[in-house]
Write a structure and sequence with these properties.
The structure is a single chain. This protein has 187 residues and is an alpha/beta fold. Helix content is 43%, strand content 22%. The strands form two sheets. Strands 2-7-1-8-9 form a five-stranded parallel β-sheet, sandwiched between helices. Strand 5 and strand 6 form a beta hairpin. The longest helix has 16 residues. The structure holds guanosine-5'-monophosphate.
């Protein structure tokens, strides 16, 4: 059986990539979402094993040492990583797997899966991004500034991705990502 496609989606925090990914996942039952592991605290409304596997530093480092992560990164003082087992199992079953991870993780994935499809979601402008992060209302000013600094770094790598999609209009952005996935499946 043909292996599934590994779809890597990145973009700065607050760009709306979560919303785009969720819409695509709910419309396409052959795409599975890889739930990442993180040591950051859950935001209000986030559910363990749905949004992330929330864990502590010791457990994260143990899994990392055992080779249980496909990639990992430290972002704003917290660890984030992709658990290996489930992703590999889904790909073997012929399911496509979506990873929503940062550029650091994306490039680690490309090392082990050169055939992965890398998509970068861009905001229409930095001002738009700031107002989205502020509008979320879950972060204090210091964290917002840190996330904006990280966003600038993240965006400087957009050109290294296979595809770039600007999230100006949500419906258009979803359609563009869907079209990319369809095209890659037919390759
Ligand atoms: P947030 O704290 O806003 O949920 O995520 C912060 C950043 O970490 C985002 O850019 C997100 O894409 C990235 N991220 C989430 N999960 C992973 C992961 O498993 N690995 C890596 N490398 N980055 C991740």
């Amino acid at each position: 059986m043909a292996k599934g496609k590994l779809l890597v989606v990145s973009g700065p925090s607050g760009v709306g990539k979560g919303t785009i990914c969720n819409q695509i996942l709910s419309a396409d039952s052959n795409i599975m979402f890889s739930v990442s592991m993180t040591t950051r605290n859950p935001r209000e409304g986030e559910v363990d094993a749905v949004n992330y596997f929330f864990t502590d530093k010791e457990s994260f480092e143990k899994l990392l040492a055992e080779g249980g992560l496909l990639e990992h990164n430290c972002y704003c003082g917290n660890y984030y990583g992709t658990p290996r087992k489930q992703v590999e199992a889904w790909l073997e079953e012929g399911k496509d797997v979506m990873l929503e991870i940062d550029f650091n993780g994306a490039f680690q994935i490309r090392e082990s899966y050169p055939e992965c499809v890398m998509i970068f979601i861009l905001p229409p402008s930095m001002e738009a991004l700031r107002s989205r992060i502020e509008g979320r209302g879950t972060e204090n000013e210091e964290t917002i500034q840190k996330r904006l600094d990280e966003a600038a770094t993240e965006m400087s790598h957009a050109d290294e991705y296979d595809y770039r999609v600007v999230n100006d209009n949500l419906e258009d952005a979803i359609k563009q990502v869907q079209d990319i996935i369809d095209k890659e499946r037919n390759n």
